């Protein structure tokens, strides 16, 4: 082989040992930045003399201990760590401070408020968020009511709601405001009748109803309960044709029209009162409305003007807008539709459902109960995370209760003044957002306060800043010398950038990438670069091609129980390397023989072999899981009776052939049967009682020891049948 080709091959070769190592060596990192992105345990050796002849550049990247063992000093290892910096950390407050009532935007219920995280790939950065529910926190409540004809008697009871609810809410907060809105349906067929007469009065001729409308903001939020009563008392019932109502249009406008509604940055409650179901996205097609709801405010003179133009919003769209605007929803619905709204509540975080009496007489109690339920639960949510960033929560709630997973985001049964904490961990994988800083936010649902977190990604090492462009050490200036290695210029490859991509893609060099002079270059699993195979990367980073010709991989091995190598080994070059005590092509054959031990401690009772933890009986007379069952065999006592009799007493059928046929056991004599071993003296022992030719009983024990030798203890004293009967006459 051409010496030049051999040298290039050595310089750029992908060693199999490297690919089969840890996450650091598997990354085949060509720079310090690539190395630290491979995992939190990875370090890069910057010592220029670290590499031995023939070793490739990626050998510099390994776990810290491995680099030290290879001879890299600790001072020469780049291993940057992430940090957490708190930038704003105002103390938690109540509504009153030093005798002065604070404004809503001066109240602090979550701490800290701003942080910066420096994230190293794979290394979680943790911090603690503390939440305290403030006393006397302001509340805005907007009452959104269905004014279709079936709600006529409910309207009468709601007309005095303002002052009555004000009185009750004063027990919770001194700063309470209330507003009112109503809805019916989209003003097109087939939801309403569009005949001129029905447009003026959609009800029967003897009923005085107002013209149908989609949504009307009757009263923006106010602290004047009397004004609420006066305006609501002037409202009239309307009507429509179908049973589901257009409430979703109204909820969307209440959520996004903050200025018209008058929402403050305080607790925002929306009470949705109806005795019917709801239309949602797609239903607008019945009226020829196909444009999706745009989620924007379209109130003119407090009336929703685009109901005929935009479809109803979807549930997901409502969830998004309610969350963005920190609105907690209370569905006050009749018993008939409670199951429907209970399912809806499960889809909308921080919402509640209450059963409305047929005339809305219990609406105040319903609101108070729902508010107490909502305000006693704290649920954290975060804004959308950049790709490659994950977040986890551990909650530490009252009475020592902790939660993880989705339960780690929430605490329940929180009373005013209670303080809870959340342990938050943020982890990045690789170098998200190409290294640009990102900002995410965490907030408790239903509250306006939020925590701002700036994410800075550690994508390069400190030594990167000290790089020498066009360094002579990189083959006549074809790369930047940084962190002890060459980072090649565009179009150059090799350990010291000695190859041009254009020059090396020749037929001669390609021949060096064919296994056994075949036709496939790099086994069709890689590219031939500088005369050496560089294997392709898989979509799944855990799956890798390897080998000099990319002929190996770690994902094509045999499987057992749908697990690669049965879960008891690792896949190397398409062959399972089994863990200790396992064998087989899929490592599905356990070598542990404990499952094959018979009651006499022998493997398969000495009548078979143990294969993959299961006995294969070689004696056809024996069967069972440990080859101990022999349906056609005589009992141990009966089988050995003649040999024991001839050896112990010189009598019996085998007395003439005793020495030849009965030397297979060790005989130990005892005077009396009471001296024979008890069951607990030896772990596995058979007690025998047999009769001789003179109708006398003799007693012996038969045991197979762990070394497979047989031991027989026999009592010299015989008993007649008569004596035996005396022994048991009490039983008989």
UniProtKB/TrEMBL annotation:
<feature type="disulfide bond">
    <location>
        <begin position="552"/>
        <end position="557"/>
    </location>
</feature>
<protein>
    <recommendedName>
        <fullName>Integrin beta</fullName>
    </recommendedName>
</protein>
<feature type="disulfide bond">
    <location>
        <begin position="45"/>
        <end position="61"/>
    </location>
</feature>
<dbReference type="GO" id="GO:0009986">
    <property type="term" value="C:cell surface"/>
</dbReference>
<dbReference type="GO" id="GO:0019960">
    <property type="term" value="F:C-X3-C chemokine binding"/>
</dbReference>
<keyword id="KW-0479">Metal-binding</keyword>
<feature type="disulfide bond">
    <location>
        <begin position="637"/>
        <end position="646"/>
    </location>
</feature>
<feature type="disulfide bond">
    <location>
        <begin position="571"/>
        <end position="576"/>
    </location>
</feature>
<dbReference type="InterPro" id="IPR033760">
    <property type="entry name" value="Integrin_beta_N"/>
</dbReference>
<keyword id="KW-0677">Repeat</keyword>
<feature type="disulfide bond">
    <location>
        <begin position="573"/>
        <end position="604"/>
    </location>
</feature>
<dbReference type="GO" id="GO:0001968">
    <property type="term" value="F:fibronectin binding"/>
</dbReference>
<feature type="signal peptide">
    <location>
        <begin position="1"/>
        <end position="17"/>
    </location>
</feature>
<feature type="disulfide bond">
    <location>
        <begin position="578"/>
        <end position="587"/>
    </location>
</feature>
<feature type="disulfide bond">
    <location>
        <begin position="528"/>
        <end position="533"/>
    </location>
</feature>
<keyword id="KW-0245">EGF-like domain</keyword>
<feature type="disulfide bond">
    <location>
        <begin position="474"/>
        <end position="486"/>
    </location>
</feature>
<dbReference type="InterPro" id="IPR015812">
    <property type="entry name" value="Integrin_bsu"/>
</dbReference>
<dbReference type="InterPro" id="IPR012896">
    <property type="entry name" value="Integrin_bsu_tail"/>
</dbReference>
<dbReference type="Pfam" id="PF07974">
    <property type="entry name" value="EGF_2"/>
</dbReference>
<feature type="disulfide bond">
    <location>
        <begin position="32"/>
        <end position="42"/>
    </location>
</feature>
<dbReference type="InterPro" id="IPR032695">
    <property type="entry name" value="Integrin_dom_sf"/>
</dbReference>
<feature type="disulfide bond">
    <location>
        <begin position="397"/>
        <end position="411"/>
    </location>
</feature>
<feature type="disulfide bond">
    <location>
        <begin position="488"/>
        <end position="497"/>
    </location>
</feature>
<feature type="disulfide bond">
    <location>
        <begin position="630"/>
        <end position="633"/>
    </location>
</feature>
<dbReference type="Pfam" id="PF00362">
    <property type="entry name" value="Integrin_beta"/>
</dbReference>
<dbReference type="GO" id="GO:0098639">
    <property type="term" value="F:collagen binding involved in cell-matrix adhesion"/>
</dbReference>
<feature type="domain" description="Integrin beta subunit tail">
    <location>
        <begin position="637"/>
        <end position="722"/>
    </location>
</feature>
<feature type="disulfide bond">
    <location>
        <begin position="612"/>
        <end position="658"/>
    </location>
</feature>
<dbReference type="GO" id="GO:0008305">
    <property type="term" value="C:integrin complex"/>
</dbReference>
<feature type="disulfide bond">
    <location>
        <begin position="530"/>
        <end position="565"/>
    </location>
</feature>
<feature type="disulfide bond">
    <location>
        <begin position="431"/>
        <end position="688"/>
    </location>
</feature>
<dbReference type="Pfam" id="PF17205">
    <property type="entry name" value="PSI_integrin"/>
</dbReference>
<dbReference type="InterPro" id="IPR002369">
    <property type="entry name" value="Integrin_bsu_VWA"/>
</dbReference>
<dbReference type="GO" id="GO:0033627">
    <property type="term" value="P:cell adhesion mediated by integrin"/>
</dbReference>
<feature type="disulfide bond">
    <location>
        <begin position="589"/>
        <end position="596"/>
    </location>
</feature>
<feature type="disulfide bond">
    <location>
        <begin position="257"/>
        <end position="297"/>
    </location>
</feature>
<keyword id="KW-1003">Cell membrane</keyword>
<dbReference type="Pfam" id="PF23105">
    <property type="entry name" value="EGF_integrin"/>
</dbReference>
<keyword id="KW-0130">Cell adhesion</keyword>
<keyword id="KW-0325">Glycoprotein</keyword>
<dbReference type="InterPro" id="IPR036349">
    <property type="entry name" value="Integrin_bsu_tail_dom_sf"/>
</dbReference>
């Amino acid at each position: 082989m051409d010496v030049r080709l051999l040298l290039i091959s050595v310089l750029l070769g992908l060693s199999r040992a490297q690919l089969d190592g840890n996450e650091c060596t598997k990354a085949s990192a060509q720079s310090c930045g690539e190395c630290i992105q491979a995992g939190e345990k990875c370090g890069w050796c910057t010592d220029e003399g670290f590499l031995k002849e023939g070793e490739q550049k990626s050998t510099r990247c390994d776990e810290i201990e491995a680099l030290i063992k290879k001879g890299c000093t600790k001072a020469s290892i780049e291993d940057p760590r992430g940090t957490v910096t708190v930038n704003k950390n105002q103390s938690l407050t109540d509504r009153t401070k030093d005798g002065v009532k604070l404004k809503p935007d001066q109240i602090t219920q979550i701490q800290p408020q701003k942080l910066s995280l420096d994230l190293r790939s794979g290394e979680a950065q943790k911090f603690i968020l503390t939440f305290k529910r403030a006393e006397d926190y302001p509340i805005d409540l907007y009452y959104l009511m269905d004014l279709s004809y079936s709600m006529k008697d409910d309207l009468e009871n709601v007309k005095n709601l303002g002052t009555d609810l004000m009185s009750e809410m004063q027990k919770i907060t001194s700063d309470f405001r209330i507003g009112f809105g109503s809805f019916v349906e989209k003003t097109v067929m087939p939801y309403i009748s569009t005949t001129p007469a029905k447009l003026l009065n959609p009800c029967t001729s003897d009923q005085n109803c107002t013209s149908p409308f989609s949504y009307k903001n009757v009263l923006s939020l106010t602290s004047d309960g009397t004004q609420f009563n006066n305006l609501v008392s002037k409202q009239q019932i309307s009507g429509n044709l179908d049973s589901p109502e257009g409430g979703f249009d109204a909820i969307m406008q209440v959520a996004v029209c903050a200025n018209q509604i008058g929402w403050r940055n305080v607790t925002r409650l929306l009470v949705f009162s109806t005795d019917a179901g709801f239309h949602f996205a797609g239903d607008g097609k019945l009226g020829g409305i196909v444009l999706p709801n745009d989620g924007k405010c379209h109130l003119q003179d407090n009336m929703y003007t685009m109901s005929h133009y935009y479809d109803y919003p979807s549930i997901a769209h409502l969830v998004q807008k309610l969350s963005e605007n920190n609105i907690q929803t209370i569905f006050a619905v009749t018993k008939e539709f409670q199951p429907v709204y209970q399912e809806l509540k499960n889809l909308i975080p921080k919402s509640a459902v209450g059963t409305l009496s047929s005339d809305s007489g219990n609406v105040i109690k319903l609101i108070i109960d729902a508010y107490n339920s909502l305000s006693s639960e704290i649920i954290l949510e975060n804004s959308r995370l950049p790709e490659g960033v994950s977040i986890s929560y551990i909650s530490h709630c009252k009475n020592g209760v902790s939660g993880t997973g989705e339960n780690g985001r929430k605490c329940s049964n929180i009373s005013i003044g209670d303080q809870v904490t959340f342990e938050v961990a943020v982890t990045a994988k690789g170098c998200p957002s190409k290294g640009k800083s990102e900002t995410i936010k965490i907030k408790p649902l239903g509250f306006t306060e939020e925590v701002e977190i700036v994410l800075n990604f550690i994508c390069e090492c400190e030594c990167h800043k000290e790089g020498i462009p066009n360094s002579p050490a990189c083959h006549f200036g074809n790369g930047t010398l940084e962190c002890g290695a060459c980072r090649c210029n565009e179009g150059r490859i090799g350990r010291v950038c000695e190859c041009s991509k254009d020059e090396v893609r020749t037929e001669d060099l390609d021949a060096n990438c064919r296994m056994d002079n075949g036709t496939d270059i790099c086994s069709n699993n890689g590219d031939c670069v500088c005369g050496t195979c560089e294997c392709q990367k898989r979509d799944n980073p855990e799956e890798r091609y390897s080998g000099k010709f990319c002929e190996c991989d770690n994902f094509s091995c045999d499987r057992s129980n749908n697990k690669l190598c049965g879960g008891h080994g690792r896949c190397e070059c398409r062959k399972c390397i089994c863990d200790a005590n396992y064998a087989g092509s899929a490592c599905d054959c356990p070598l542990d023989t404990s499952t094959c031990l018979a009651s006499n401690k022998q493997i398969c009772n000495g009548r078979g072999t143990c294969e993959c933890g299961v006995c294969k009986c070689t004696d056809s007379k024996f069967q069972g899981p440990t080859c101990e069952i022999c349906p056609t065999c005589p009992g141990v006592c009966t089988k050995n009776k003649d040999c024991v009799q001839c050896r112990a007493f010189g009598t019996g059928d085998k007395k003439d052939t005793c020495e030849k046929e009965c030397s297979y056991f060790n005989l130990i004599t005892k005077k009396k049967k009471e001296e024979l071993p008890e069951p607990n003296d030896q772990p596995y022992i058979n007690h025998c009682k047999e009769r001789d030719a003179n109708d006398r009983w003799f007693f012996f024990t038969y045991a197979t020891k762990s070394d497979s030798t047989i031991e027989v203890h026999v009592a010299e004293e015989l008993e007649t049948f008569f004596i035996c009967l005396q022994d048991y006459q009490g039983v008989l």
